[in-house]
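#struct-help
A.M.: can someone run this one for me? Single chain, 363 residues.
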Amino acid sequence: MNPKNHTVRVGISIGDFNGIGPEIIMKCLKDKTITDFFTPVIFGSGKLFTYQKNIFKLNLNFNYITEASQAQAGKLNMVNLTKENMNVELGKPTEESTKMAIDSLEAATEALMKGEIDVLVTAPINKDEMVKMGFKHAGHTGYFEEKFNKKGLMFLVTEDLKVAVSTHHIPLSAVAENISKEKIKKQIRILNQTLIEDFSVRRPKIAVLGLNPHSGDGGVIGKEEIEIISPTIKELSDQGILTFGPFPADSFFQPEKYKNYDAVLAMYHDQGLAPFKTLAYEEGVNYTAGLPFVRTSPDHGTAYDIAGKNIANEQSFMEAIFTAIKIFNNRNDYKDLMSNRLQPRRVPSDNGVDEDLPVESEM
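D.P.: on it. Structure tokens below:
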């Protein structure tokens, strides 16, 4: 951790408060030196967090504010969205906890778009319950895509392993029809750019998994690799994006294989997330790549089965916070680098027309 990061204002949406969201948030903030590294801004309820901090025997003092612009460095800031008492029923979603999850997310997103916070870290939500209450998306990714009017990419990251998924929250039966050359091209371009700008990888190498077992076995078990995935990989490689595959998914996630690449594009949710969560185990972070703002979350859900038992591990949420800060700083460094690039030097030519001399790129 780098103390210079203390200026970054980290917005936190609380997710479903009957799950482990408030517990892991408060555990991440319990060290009194944590505000030396960033400024937390939680979008929630003072009464709710006071009730839950007593359950978990945590000694935290919040600075209650009415909007994120009032947040103060060196304090645990809480945007108090309601002064009403909250009915806590740890271990199961309720209408009240679902409404607060939506209100917290919307308030935090608004603050992010206004520039009142620098990054957003989202605690786990219950997608089904939110959809029942009128939330239009099957997860955070679709919500942010609509809000920012930009296509995003679900990207699970650790220091050593980074996995994106081409399709995410759709039935397995619909995966094949949702794969196309154009879609994969856009996603790999997003992946390539985010590796450069957000993770400071100079020349990213991207591995692409096949859709079918054994990557189709030359067309015997499916033709998506021959007709869609392989031609797309070749086209992007010809354009200078280092793209490789398609690799059979069943044998790819071995250290001697995946560590040769900077990121992996899986074709569907479980193909990418099952090995990622097995290998990353409580260190993984879900990052929405390709958006104009930085949003991360832990790579786990609401965990109702352990809510209130004081055994939830906050490591993934802590990783999500510091990954967001790192990406924010990397983006700013990249912008500074690009704005200070040497410009071509114009020199007179023999025919009297000035020509640009090429300049060695600093990238």
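A.M.: thanks! The first helix runs from residue 21 to 29.
D.P.: also worth noting: Residues 1-5, 359-363 have pLDDT under 50 and may be disordered.
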